[in-house]
Amino acid sequence: MLKHISHTLFKNTFIEKLNQKSVSTLICLNLNKVKYEEPRNINSNSKDYVCVYSFPFIRHVSIVNRLKFYQTLVTSLSLPTMAVLSQQNILPMESLITGSIVGGALCAALLSTGYFINNLIGYIYYNQKTETAKISYVDFWGKRKNIEIPVVDIVPICDTKPSIHDKLFISIQRYSTKDTLKLNLNYGVIYDTDKFQKIL
Prior knowledge:
Number of domains: 2
Number of strands: 7
Strand order of the largest sheet: 4-3-2-1-7
Strand content: 15-25%
Helix content: 40-55%
Radius of gyration: 21 Å
């Protein structure tokens, strides 16, 4: 009963939030204008699931998360090597300083970007028979993770506290865990608003 009331409140809140979003999001909500592409890498047991949301730039997010790891690895391996070469007078001290600054700046930029795109949702599927949602997101390492969640376990968006990062992404929370996922409505495509509202 509480879930039903929350969904009723959500409809009004969600429409208000959509009115504040960009024009591109509103165009995406017009299902006649949306070009539907079946997402790849769907498990064979997911034929009862229907895609209700996708984030078209999820592959770019995955690449940035992987670059973050590789850049940190390269920097942590190259700086000690450069320091040894500098002590042996094979490499000038300026090269070590420049390498440290450039490597540190790139690592800091990628890690700070990673904060905003870590656990970002790429796809949301809905199974009406079992009332479960399959959420595909990108983890810290840039790998795709799929989790199946009962809809009753997802905290409705209207029940979550407002945050300063709501314009970038909306936090998706669950009752059973403190893990938080991130949903981008500015550039995400909603294929079925009714099923989307049933989930969130």
